[in-house]
Amino acid sequence: MQQKGRKKRRLFPIIDPSNQFRFLAFIIIYSWVIVIFLALCIFVPNILQMQDENLSFEIRAAAAKNLLAAHKMVWPALIALICIIGMHSFRFFHRFIGPLYRFRWGFERMRDGHLDFRIKIRKNDFLHKEEQAINEMIEALAGKIGNIQVASNDSLKSLNELKEMLTEVSEHRGKSKELLDTHSRHLDTLADAARYFRL
Q1: pLDDT for 174 beyond 80
Q2: Where is 153: in which H helix or E strand?
Q3: Degrees (nearest 5) of the Cα angle 163, 167, 172?
Q4: Chain centroid to CA 21: how far?
Q5: Which are the contacts of 16, defined by CB distance < 8 A and separation ≥ 6?
Q6: With contact defined as beta carbons under 8 Å apart, do 119 and 92 qualify?
């Protein structure tokens, strides 16, 4: 019973109401434009025949009969078609909206400084190439930031050691020079890693 309910909820999930209902509104508007165009094509010739007084009564009566028959057949079919198209479109656009929702979640995580995640979208969703590109970007960013963090820690460590050495007697001048060189190399590594990003 619980699984049935879960499947039911997944049928038409609303995860981004603003975009999903906007897409649905566009589909319904376009469908109604098509319906009005078809109605004009189907009904207007019969209406014109009914209003033409030069035609015989039989022809005008047949036009009226055709008009009533068309009303009975066309409107239910067109309304059913709009409902089917609307429901299918809502479902179809969910395959775009779902990934966009996951991407937005990923961007918010990155904004908050988290790079320990990967974006995963469903198998039947669209935008799999974009998913791969974003995950590659996160991996590259995490790698570069990791290098920066390691280089920063090494730099701080060597700087602290250098400070300790300089507070001691000056006979350790050779060791101080070596530590300064090490510290300089760490800072160069840090600068190279930081240059990867363009601000």
Answers
A1: no
A2: helix 128-167
A3: 90
A4: 15
A5: 97, 100, 101
A6: no
- Contact in structure between 45 and 88 (CB atoms under 8 Å): no
User: Which H or E element spans position 101?
Assistant: helix 57-111
How far, in Å, are 21, 33, 143 from residue 133 at the CA level?
A: 28, 39, 15
Buried b (16+ CB within 10 A) or exposed e, 142-178: bebbebbeebbebbeebbeebeebeeeeeeeeeeeee
The identity of residue 148, as a single letter, is I
pLDDT tens column, 56-91 = 888 888 888 888 888 788 888 888 888 888 788 777
Neighbours of 100 (CB within 10 A): 17
- Rama region for 121: left / alpha / beta (φ>0; ψ in -120 to 50; rest): beta
Which token pair is 80? 């059913």
Rg (CA), the chain: 35
Q: Which pLDDT band holds residue 112 (cuts at 50, 70, 90)?
A: confident
If we measure between CA atoms, which residue out of 11, 142, 28 comes closest to residue 85? 28
pLDDT for residue 198 is more than 70: no
97 burial class (0-12, 13-18, 19+ CB within 10 angstroms)? buried
- Predicted structure pTM score: 0.61
